[in-house]
Amino acid sequence: GGSSSDKGKAPMEADVDHLRVLEQAIEEQRSEHQVLASKVDKLDSKVDTLNNKFDMIIALLQKP
Fold it and tell me: Which residues form a coiled coil (predicted)?
């Protein structure tokens, strides 16, 4: 009965392949999230510098 043992083995391998695909997708999503996070960080710092510039401009305008 070699064929019957093969049948029992096939679904397992399919599951393993499926898991690998899932893992890959998760890894890709993770790296995308990291890229997004760094972009947000850069945006935050840009906003901070903008705010500082505005503060400076307002301070200059308020000078008598």
Answer: 19-46
Distance of alpha carbon 60 from alpha carbon 31, whole angstroms: 43
Rg (CA), the chain: 28
Give the separation between CA 53 and CA 56, rounded to whole angstroms: 5
pTM over 0.70: no
Domain assignment present for residue 25? The answer is yes
Query: pLDDT of 4-26, one tens digit each?
Result: 556 666 778 889 999 999 999 99
Q: Is residue 37 part of a domain?
A: yes
Structural domains in the chain (count): 1
